[in-house]
Amino acid sequence: MTSSRPKIDFDAKIPNNVDLASDRKLQRALERWQPNFLDWWGDMGPAVDTKDVYLRTAVDVGREGWAHFDHVPMNEYRWGVFLSEHDPDRKIAFGEHKGEPVWQEVPGEYRADLQRLIVIQGDTEPASVEQQRFLGATAPSLYDMRNLFQVNVEEGRHLWAMVYLLHAYFGRAGREEADQLLARNSGSDDSPRILGAFNEETPDWLSFYMFTYFTDRDGKYQLGTLKESGFDPLSRTCEFMLKEEAHHMFVGTTGIDRVVTRTAQLMNEHDSEDVAGAGGIPLDMIQKYINFHYTVSLDLFGNESSTNAANYFTAGLKGRWQEERRKDDHVLTDDAGAVDAVRDGQITTTEVPALLALNQDLRSEYIGDCSNGLKRWNRILEKHGIDARLSLPHVGFNRQVGAFAGQRISPEGKMISEDEWQRNEGRWLPTEVDKTHVRGLMHPVLEPGKIASWIAPPTNGINDKPVDFEYVHFN
Fold this sequence. Notes:
Layout: H1 24-44, E1 50-58, E2 67-72, H2 111-131, H3 142-169, H4 171-183, H5 205-227, H6 232-270, H7 283-298, H8 307-315, E3 336-343, E4 346-353, H9 358-383, H10 418-428, H11 432-440, E5 472-474
Protein backbone atom coordinates (compact mmCIF):
# COMPACT_ATOMS: atom_id res chain seq x y z
CA MET A 1 0.00 0.00 0.00
CA THR A 2 1.28 3.48 -0.83
CA SER A 3 0.19 6.74 0.75
CA SER A 4 0.90 10.41 0.47
CA ARG A 5 0.85 13.04 3.14
CA PRO A 6 -0.26 16.48 1.94
CA LYS A 7 1.54 19.36 3.64
CA ILE A 8 -0.48 21.69 5.85
CA ASP A 9 -0.41 25.26 4.56
CA PHE A 10 -0.29 27.32 7.76
CA ASP A 11 0.29 30.60 5.98
CA ALA A 12 -3.15 30.52 4.38
CA LYS A 13 -6.07 32.46 5.82
CA ILE A 14 -7.68 29.05 6.40
CA PRO A 15 -4.94 26.53 7.29
CA ASN A 16 -5.44 23.39 5.24
CA ASN A 17 -3.83 20.39 3.61
CA VAL A 18 -6.39 20.06 0.80
CA ASP A 19 -4.68 22.52 -1.59
CA LEU A 20 -7.45 25.05 -1.07
CA ALA A 21 -5.50 27.67 -3.03
CA SER A 22 -6.00 25.68 -6.22
CA ASP A 23 -9.80 26.07 -6.03
CA ARG A 24 -10.44 29.79 -5.81
CA LYS A 25 -14.23 29.43 -5.84
CA LEU A 26 -14.18 27.07 -2.86
CA GLN A 27 -11.57 29.16 -1.09
CA ARG A 28 -13.67 32.32 -1.45
CA ALA A 29 -16.79 30.52 -0.23
CA LEU A 30 -15.05 29.27 2.91
CA GLU A 31 -13.47 32.66 3.50
CA ARG A 32 -16.97 34.18 3.40
CA TRP A 33 -18.13 31.58 5.94
CA GLN A 34 -15.15 32.21 8.24
CA PRO A 35 -16.33 35.58 9.68
CA ASN A 36 -19.71 34.03 10.47
CA PHE A 37 -17.93 31.25 12.35
CA LEU A 38 -15.87 33.79 14.30
CA ASP A 39 -19.02 35.74 15.15
CA TRP A 40 -20.62 32.52 16.38
CA TRP A 41 -17.52 31.73 18.43
CA GLY A 42 -17.64 35.20 19.99
CA ASP A 43 -21.33 34.89 20.81
CA MET A 44 -21.59 31.20 21.75
CA GLY A 45 -18.03 30.06 22.52
CA PRO A 46 -16.26 30.17 25.91
CA ALA A 47 -17.51 33.09 27.98
CA VAL A 48 -14.39 33.51 30.16
CA ASP A 49 -12.17 36.45 29.18
CA THR A 50 -8.67 35.04 28.72
CA LYS A 51 -5.46 36.46 27.31
CA ASP A 52 -4.22 33.12 26.03
CA VAL A 53 -4.43 29.40 26.70
CA TYR A 54 -1.85 26.60 26.42
CA LEU A 55 -3.39 24.82 23.44
CA ARG A 56 -2.31 22.16 20.99
CA THR A 57 -2.71 22.99 17.32
CA ALA A 58 -2.57 20.48 14.50
CA VAL A 59 0.52 20.92 12.32
CA ASP A 60 0.63 17.54 10.57
CA VAL A 61 -1.69 14.61 9.83
CA GLY A 62 0.79 11.80 10.44
CA ARG A 63 0.62 9.30 13.24
CA GLU A 64 3.42 10.90 15.28
CA GLY A 65 4.21 14.48 16.20
CA TRP A 66 1.07 15.92 14.66
CA ALA A 67 0.47 18.72 17.18
CA HIS A 68 2.27 21.85 18.43
CA PHE A 69 1.69 23.22 21.95
CA ASP A 70 1.88 26.91 22.90
CA HIS A 71 -0.04 29.73 24.57
CA VAL A 72 -2.54 31.02 21.99
CA PRO A 73 -5.34 33.62 22.23
CA MET A 74 -8.43 31.52 21.61
CA ASN A 75 -9.96 33.86 19.07
CA GLU A 76 -6.70 33.55 17.08
CA TYR A 77 -6.64 29.75 17.13
CA ARG A 78 -5.84 28.43 13.66
CA TRP A 79 -8.95 26.45 12.84
CA GLY A 80 -8.53 24.75 9.52
CA VAL A 81 -9.29 21.85 7.19
CA PHE A 82 -7.19 18.71 7.67
CA LEU A 83 -7.64 15.30 6.07
CA SER A 84 -5.56 12.26 6.97
CA GLU A 85 -3.12 10.70 4.54
CA HIS A 86 -4.50 9.64 1.15
CA ASP A 87 -4.23 5.99 0.18
CA PRO A 88 -4.62 5.72 -3.61
CA ASP A 89 -5.11 1.95 -3.35
CA ARG A 90 -7.98 2.08 -0.85
CA LYS A 91 -11.07 0.03 -1.74
CA ILE A 92 -14.60 0.04 -0.34
CA ALA A 93 -14.62 -2.66 2.34
CA PHE A 94 -18.33 -3.46 2.67
CA GLY A 95 -21.76 -3.38 1.10
CA GLU A 96 -22.76 -3.84 -2.50
CA HIS A 97 -19.74 -1.84 -3.72
CA LYS A 98 -17.24 -3.95 -1.76
CA GLY A 99 -13.92 -4.18 -3.58
CA GLU A 100 -14.50 -1.12 -5.79
CA PRO A 101 -12.20 1.91 -5.56
CA VAL A 102 -13.39 4.48 -3.03
CA TRP A 103 -15.14 7.56 -4.37
CA GLN A 104 -13.39 10.92 -4.60
CA GLU A 105 -16.64 12.60 -5.64
CA VAL A 106 -20.17 12.12 -4.32
CA PRO A 107 -22.12 9.49 -6.27
CA GLY A 108 -25.31 11.14 -7.45
CA GLU A 109 -27.59 8.40 -6.14
CA TYR A 110 -26.19 8.83 -2.61
CA ARG A 111 -25.98 12.59 -2.53
CA ALA A 112 -28.91 13.24 -0.18
CA ASP A 113 -27.92 10.49 2.25
CA LEU A 114 -24.29 11.57 2.45
CA GLN A 115 -25.27 15.19 2.95
CA ARG A 116 -27.61 14.20 5.78
CA LEU A 117 -24.91 12.14 7.53
CA ILE A 118 -22.46 15.03 7.32
CA VAL A 119 -25.00 17.59 8.56
CA ILE A 120 -25.95 15.47 11.60
CA GLN A 121 -22.30 14.94 12.51
CA GLY A 122 -21.52 18.60 11.91
CA ASP A 123 -24.42 19.73 14.09
CA THR A 124 -23.03 17.98 17.17
CA GLU A 125 -19.72 19.86 17.07
CA PRO A 126 -20.83 23.45 17.76
CA ALA A 127 -23.60 22.13 20.01
CA SER A 128 -21.16 20.87 22.62
CA VAL A 129 -19.31 24.21 22.60
CA GLU A 130 -22.61 25.95 23.27
CA GLN A 131 -23.48 23.52 26.06
CA GLN A 132 -20.13 24.17 27.75
CA ARG A 133 -20.02 27.93 27.18
CA PHE A 134 -20.11 29.02 30.83
CA LEU A 135 -18.12 26.20 32.45
CA GLY A 136 -14.86 28.12 32.42
CA ALA A 137 -16.22 30.49 35.05
CA THR A 138 -16.30 27.65 37.61
CA ALA A 139 -13.19 25.68 36.61
CA PRO A 140 -11.73 23.63 39.49
CA SER A 141 -8.18 24.42 38.31
CA LEU A 142 -6.27 26.08 35.49
CA TYR A 143 -5.42 22.57 34.25
CA ASP A 144 -9.12 21.76 33.90
CA MET A 145 -9.93 25.13 32.35
CA ARG A 146 -7.25 24.52 29.74
CA ASN A 147 -8.65 21.06 28.97
CA LEU A 148 -12.14 22.50 28.57
CA PHE A 149 -10.89 25.11 26.12
CA GLN A 150 -8.87 22.49 24.21
CA VAL A 151 -12.03 20.45 23.78
CA ASN A 152 -13.90 23.57 22.67
CA VAL A 153 -11.43 24.69 20.00
CA GLU A 154 -11.21 21.16 18.61
CA GLU A 155 -14.99 20.85 18.42
CA GLY A 156 -14.82 24.10 16.47
CA ARG A 157 -12.29 22.52 14.11
CA HIS A 158 -14.49 19.47 13.70
CA LEU A 159 -17.25 21.84 12.62
CA TRP A 160 -14.85 23.22 10.03
CA ALA A 161 -14.18 19.66 8.82
CA MET A 162 -17.85 19.06 8.08
CA VAL A 163 -18.37 22.53 6.62
CA TYR A 164 -15.50 21.95 4.20
CA LEU A 165 -17.17 18.78 2.93
CA LEU A 166 -20.51 20.55 2.53
CA HIS A 167 -18.95 23.43 0.60
CA ALA A 168 -16.59 21.33 -1.49
CA TYR A 169 -18.95 18.53 -2.56
CA PHE A 170 -22.60 19.58 -2.19
CA GLY A 171 -22.92 22.88 -4.03
CA ARG A 172 -25.52 25.45 -3.06
CA ALA A 173 -27.45 23.01 -0.85
CA GLY A 174 -24.25 22.26 1.06
CA ARG A 175 -23.49 25.95 1.56
CA GLU A 176 -26.99 26.51 2.91
CA GLU A 177 -26.61 23.59 5.31
CA ALA A 178 -23.26 24.99 6.46
CA ASP A 179 -24.97 28.28 7.32
CA GLN A 180 -27.66 26.42 9.28
CA LEU A 181 -24.98 24.77 11.43
CA LEU A 182 -24.40 28.22 12.92
CA ALA A 183 -28.08 29.17 13.01
CA ARG A 184 -29.19 26.33 15.31
CA ASN A 185 -28.29 26.60 19.00
CA SER A 186 -28.24 24.05 21.79
CA GLY A 187 -31.42 24.17 23.86
CA SER A 188 -33.10 26.78 21.66
CA ASP A 189 -36.89 26.64 21.63
CA ASP A 190 -37.07 27.90 18.05
CA SER A 191 -34.01 26.29 16.45
CA PRO A 192 -32.57 23.50 18.59
CA ARG A 193 -29.77 21.15 17.69
CA ILE A 194 -30.79 18.02 15.76
CA LEU A 195 -30.02 15.35 18.39
CA GLY A 196 -31.60 15.42 21.83
CA ALA A 197 -28.44 14.88 23.90
CA PHE A 198 -27.01 18.07 22.42
CA ASN A 199 -29.87 20.17 23.75
CA GLU A 200 -29.27 19.08 27.35
CA GLU A 201 -27.60 21.41 29.81
CA THR A 202 -23.97 20.96 30.86
CA PRO A 203 -24.21 23.24 33.91
CA ASP A 204 -21.39 21.88 36.09
CA TRP A 205 -18.07 20.07 35.86
CA LEU A 206 -19.38 16.68 36.94
CA SER A 207 -21.78 16.89 33.98
CA PHE A 208 -18.89 17.95 31.74
CA TYR A 209 -16.78 14.95 32.71
CA MET A 210 -19.78 12.67 32.18
CA PHE A 211 -20.45 14.29 28.78
CA THR A 212 -16.86 13.89 27.62
CA TYR A 213 -16.80 10.29 28.85
CA PHE A 214 -20.17 9.07 27.59
CA THR A 215 -21.37 11.42 24.85
CA ASP A 216 -17.99 12.08 23.24
CA ARG A 217 -17.49 8.30 23.31
CA ASP A 218 -20.63 8.00 21.19
CA GLY A 219 -18.90 10.50 18.88
CA LYS A 220 -15.89 8.19 18.69
CA TYR A 221 -18.06 5.32 17.48
CA GLN A 222 -20.05 7.44 15.02
CA LEU A 223 -16.81 8.83 13.56
CA GLY A 224 -15.43 5.29 13.45
CA THR A 225 -18.30 4.15 11.24
CA LEU A 226 -17.95 7.17 8.95
CA LYS A 227 -14.19 6.55 8.72
CA GLU A 228 -15.11 3.35 6.87
CA SER A 229 -17.13 5.30 4.29
CA GLY A 230 -16.65 4.68 0.60
CA PHE A 231 -16.70 8.47 0.16
CA ASP A 232 -12.98 8.96 0.70
CA PRO A 233 -12.91 12.66 1.71
CA LEU A 234 -15.38 11.89 4.53
CA SER A 235 -13.34 8.86 5.60
CA ARG A 236 -10.09 10.83 5.70
CA THR A 237 -11.74 13.72 7.54
CA CYS A 238 -13.11 11.42 10.25
CA GLU A 239 -9.85 9.55 10.63
CA PHE A 240 -8.10 12.78 11.55
CA MET A 241 -10.96 13.91 13.81
CA LEU A 242 -10.54 10.71 15.80
CA LYS A 243 -7.01 11.77 16.73
CA GLU A 244 -8.44 14.85 18.44
CA GLU A 245 -11.50 13.09 19.86
CA ALA A 246 -9.26 10.83 21.95
CA HIS A 247 -8.28 13.79 24.14
CA HIS A 248 -11.92 14.63 24.82
CA MET A 249 -12.55 11.15 26.19
CA PHE A 250 -9.32 11.34 28.19
CA VAL A 251 -10.69 14.46 29.88
CA GLY A 252 -13.86 12.62 30.83
CA THR A 253 -12.17 9.41 31.96
CA THR A 254 -9.57 11.09 34.15
CA GLY A 255 -12.02 13.74 35.36
CA ILE A 256 -14.32 11.08 36.79
CA ASP A 257 -11.24 9.23 38.11
CA ARG A 258 -10.39 12.32 40.13
CA VAL A 259 -13.94 12.91 41.38
CA VAL A 260 -14.21 9.30 42.57
CA THR A 261 -10.75 9.51 44.16
CA ARG A 262 -11.65 12.63 46.13
CA THR A 263 -14.98 11.16 47.23
CA ALA A 264 -13.20 8.01 48.43
CA GLN A 265 -10.68 10.11 50.36
CA LEU A 266 -13.45 12.07 52.06
CA MET A 267 -15.37 8.88 52.90
CA ASN A 268 -12.30 7.54 54.66
CA GLU A 269 -11.46 10.84 56.37
CA HIS A 270 -14.99 11.21 57.76
CA ASP A 271 -15.82 7.49 58.07
CA SER A 272 -19.10 8.14 56.28
CA GLU A 273 -20.74 7.65 52.92
CA ASP A 274 -22.36 11.09 53.24
CA VAL A 275 -19.57 13.39 52.13
CA ALA A 276 -21.86 16.18 50.93
CA GLY A 277 -21.40 18.09 54.16
CA ALA A 278 -17.63 17.77 53.77
CA GLY A 279 -17.74 19.44 50.37
CA GLY A 280 -17.64 16.27 48.30
CA ILE A 281 -19.92 14.47 45.84
CA PRO A 282 -21.41 11.30 47.36
CA LEU A 283 -21.08 8.05 45.45
CA ASP A 284 -24.83 7.66 45.06
CA MET A 285 -24.92 11.08 43.41
CA ILE A 286 -22.09 10.13 41.05
CA GLN A 287 -24.07 6.99 40.18
CA LYS A 288 -27.13 9.08 39.32
CA TYR A 289 -25.07 11.23 36.96
CA ILE A 290 -23.67 8.09 35.32
CA ASN A 291 -27.21 6.74 34.91
CA PHE A 292 -28.41 9.93 33.22
CA HIS A 293 -25.52 10.64 30.86
CA TYR A 294 -25.08 7.02 29.84
CA THR A 295 -28.73 6.52 28.94
CA VAL A 296 -29.02 9.84 27.10
CA SER A 297 -25.96 8.82 25.09
CA LEU A 298 -27.44 5.38 24.31
CA ASP A 299 -30.35 7.16 22.63
CA LEU A 300 -27.90 8.64 20.12
CA PHE A 301 -27.52 5.19 18.53
CA GLY A 302 -31.13 5.30 17.31
CA ASN A 303 -33.54 2.41 16.89
CA GLU A 304 -32.23 -1.11 17.40
CA SER A 305 -33.72 -2.19 14.07
CA SER A 306 -32.99 0.42 11.41
CA THR A 307 -33.57 0.42 7.66
CA ASN A 308 -31.56 3.64 7.40
CA ALA A 309 -28.50 1.95 8.91
CA ALA A 310 -29.02 -1.01 6.57
CA ASN A 311 -29.25 1.25 3.53
CA TYR A 312 -26.17 3.27 4.53
CA PHE A 313 -24.17 0.07 4.95
CA THR A 314 -25.34 -1.55 1.72
CA ALA A 315 -24.59 1.64 -0.21
CA GLY A 316 -21.06 1.84 1.23
CA LEU A 317 -21.69 5.13 3.05
CA LYS A 318 -21.28 4.05 6.68
CA GLY A 319 -19.62 0.85 7.86
CA ARG A 320 -19.32 -0.94 11.16
CA TRP A 321 -16.82 -0.20 13.90
CA GLN A 322 -13.47 -1.64 12.76
CA GLU A 323 -15.13 -3.08 9.68
CA GLU A 324 -12.07 -4.71 8.16
CA ARG A 325 -11.35 -6.71 11.32
CA ARG A 326 -14.75 -8.43 11.13
CA LYS A 327 -14.71 -12.13 10.23
CA ASP A 328 -17.66 -12.23 7.83
CA ASP A 329 -18.42 -11.41 4.21
CA HIS A 330 -18.92 -7.64 4.90
CA VAL A 331 -22.13 -7.76 2.86
CA LEU A 332 -24.45 -9.39 5.45
CA THR A 333 -27.33 -10.12 3.08
CA ASP A 334 -27.58 -13.74 4.30
CA ASP A 335 -26.89 -13.10 7.99
CA ALA A 336 -29.20 -12.55 10.96
CA GLY A 337 -28.82 -10.67 14.22
CA ALA A 338 -30.66 -10.34 17.53
CA VAL A 339 -32.00 -6.98 18.71
CA ASP A 340 -33.58 -5.93 21.99
CA ALA A 341 -37.35 -5.87 22.18
CA VAL A 342 -40.20 -5.59 24.67
CA ARG A 343 -42.99 -8.10 24.15
CA ASP A 344 -45.99 -8.80 26.38
CA GLY A 345 -44.46 -6.75 29.17
CA GLN A 346 -41.17 -8.68 29.07
CA ILE A 347 -37.68 -7.69 27.96
CA THR A 348 -36.56 -10.08 25.25
CA THR A 349 -34.78 -10.21 21.90
CA THR A 350 -35.98 -10.79 18.40
CA GLU A 351 -34.11 -12.01 15.34
CA VAL A 352 -33.88 -9.68 12.35
CA PRO A 353 -31.69 -9.55 9.23
CA ALA A 354 -28.16 -8.54 10.26
CA LEU A 355 -28.38 -5.42 8.11
CA LEU A 356 -31.24 -4.15 10.25
CA ALA A 357 -29.30 -4.80 13.47
CA LEU A 358 -26.35 -2.51 12.72
CA ASN A 359 -27.33 0.19 15.23
CA GLN A 360 -27.47 -2.38 18.02
CA ASP A 361 -24.15 -3.83 16.84
CA LEU A 362 -22.53 -0.40 17.20
CA ARG A 363 -24.26 0.26 20.52
CA SER A 364 -22.92 -3.05 21.86
CA GLU A 365 -19.36 -1.99 20.98
CA TYR A 366 -19.98 1.29 22.81
CA ILE A 367 -21.38 -0.42 25.91
CA GLY A 368 -18.33 -2.66 26.15
CA ASP A 369 -16.06 0.38 25.91
CA CYS A 370 -18.05 2.30 28.56
CA SER A 371 -17.67 -0.66 30.91
CA ASN A 372 -13.92 -0.09 30.99
CA GLY A 373 -14.42 3.20 32.78
CA LEU A 374 -16.51 1.55 35.45
CA LYS A 375 -13.71 -0.95 36.06
CA ARG A 376 -11.27 1.96 36.48
CA TRP A 377 -13.45 3.79 38.95
CA ASN A 378 -14.23 0.67 40.94
CA ARG A 379 -10.52 -0.12 41.21
CA ILE A 380 -10.11 3.33 42.77
CA LEU A 381 -12.78 2.50 45.33
CA GLU A 382 -11.18 -0.87 46.01
CA LYS A 383 -7.78 0.77 46.45
CA HIS A 384 -9.29 3.03 49.12
CA GLY A 385 -10.88 0.09 50.92
CA ILE A 386 -14.44 1.01 49.98
CA ASP A 387 -16.89 -1.82 49.31
CA ALA A 388 -19.42 0.18 47.25
CA ARG A 389 -19.23 -0.10 43.46
CA LEU A 390 -20.41 2.01 40.54
CA SER A 391 -22.24 0.36 37.64
CA LEU A 392 -23.86 0.94 34.27
CA PRO A 393 -27.65 0.70 34.41
CA HIS A 394 -29.57 -1.74 32.22
CA VAL A 395 -29.67 -0.75 28.57
CA GLY A 396 -33.44 -0.23 28.80
CA PHE A 397 -33.34 2.18 31.74
CA ASN A 398 -34.49 5.78 31.13
CA ARG A 399 -34.62 5.42 27.35
CA GLN A 400 -36.42 7.85 25.03
CA VAL A 401 -35.46 6.24 21.68
CA GLY A 402 -35.80 2.71 20.38
CA ALA A 403 -37.40 -0.45 21.71
CA PHE A 404 -37.30 0.74 25.32
CA ALA A 405 -38.74 4.22 24.71
CA GLY A 406 -41.60 4.89 27.11
CA GLN A 407 -40.99 1.70 29.06
CA ARG A 408 -40.43 1.84 32.81
CA ILE A 409 -37.37 -0.29 33.55
CA SER A 410 -35.25 -0.24 36.69
CA PRO A 411 -31.44 0.11 36.56
CA GLU A 412 -31.30 -3.63 37.29
CA GLY A 413 -33.40 -4.39 34.19
CA LYS A 414 -36.77 -5.11 35.79
CA MET A 415 -40.00 -3.96 34.14
CA ILE A 416 -41.84 -1.82 36.70
CA SER A 417 -45.07 0.14 37.01
CA GLU A 418 -45.39 3.89 36.58
CA ASP A 419 -46.04 4.21 40.32
CA GLU A 420 -42.84 2.34 41.18
CA TRP A 421 -40.90 4.51 38.73
CA GLN A 422 -42.25 7.69 40.31
CA ARG A 423 -41.37 6.46 43.79
CA ASN A 424 -37.78 5.62 42.81
CA GLU A 425 -36.84 8.10 40.10
CA GLY A 426 -35.10 10.34 42.63
CA ARG A 427 -32.95 7.39 43.74
CA TRP A 428 -31.87 6.66 40.20
CA LEU A 429 -31.55 10.02 38.41
CA PRO A 430 -30.22 13.40 39.56
CA THR A 431 -32.80 15.41 41.51
CA GLU A 432 -32.93 19.18 41.82
CA VAL A 433 -31.39 18.76 45.27
CA ASP A 434 -28.50 16.79 43.77
CA LYS A 435 -27.98 19.33 41.00
CA THR A 436 -28.08 22.20 43.46
CA HIS A 437 -25.47 20.51 45.64
CA VAL A 438 -23.12 19.88 42.72
CA ARG A 439 -23.54 23.41 41.39
CA GLY A 440 -22.91 24.74 44.86
CA LEU A 441 -19.43 23.19 44.79
CA MET A 442 -18.55 24.92 41.53
CA HIS A 443 -16.27 27.71 42.75
CA PRO A 444 -13.42 28.70 40.43
CA VAL A 445 -9.84 27.97 41.48
CA LEU A 446 -7.55 30.02 39.29
CA GLU A 447 -4.22 29.95 41.12
CA PRO A 448 -1.63 27.76 39.36
CA GLY A 449 -1.26 24.39 41.08
CA LYS A 450 -4.36 24.82 43.28
CA ILE A 451 -7.42 22.59 42.99
CA ALA A 452 -11.03 22.67 44.16
CA SER A 453 -11.75 20.59 47.26
CA TRP A 454 -14.32 18.28 45.58
CA ILE A 455 -11.87 16.79 43.05
CA ALA A 456 -8.41 15.24 43.33
CA PRO A 457 -5.49 16.83 41.45
CA PRO A 458 -4.42 15.31 38.12
CA THR A 459 -1.58 12.81 38.12
CA ASN A 460 0.31 14.54 35.31
CA GLY A 461 0.29 17.87 33.54
CA ILE A 462 -0.12 18.55 29.82
CA ASN A 463 2.68 17.88 27.32
CA ASP A 464 5.20 17.13 30.10
CA LYS A 465 4.42 20.42 31.84
CA PRO A 466 3.99 20.31 35.64
CA VAL A 467 0.51 20.34 37.15
CA ASP A 468 1.20 23.82 38.59
CA PHE A 469 2.09 25.26 35.16
CA GLU A 470 0.22 28.45 34.29
CA TYR A 471 -1.97 26.91 31.58
CA VAL A 472 -4.20 29.98 31.21
CA HIS A 473 -3.28 33.66 31.25
CA PHE A 474 -5.97 36.26 31.93
CA ASN A 475 -6.33 39.80 30.71
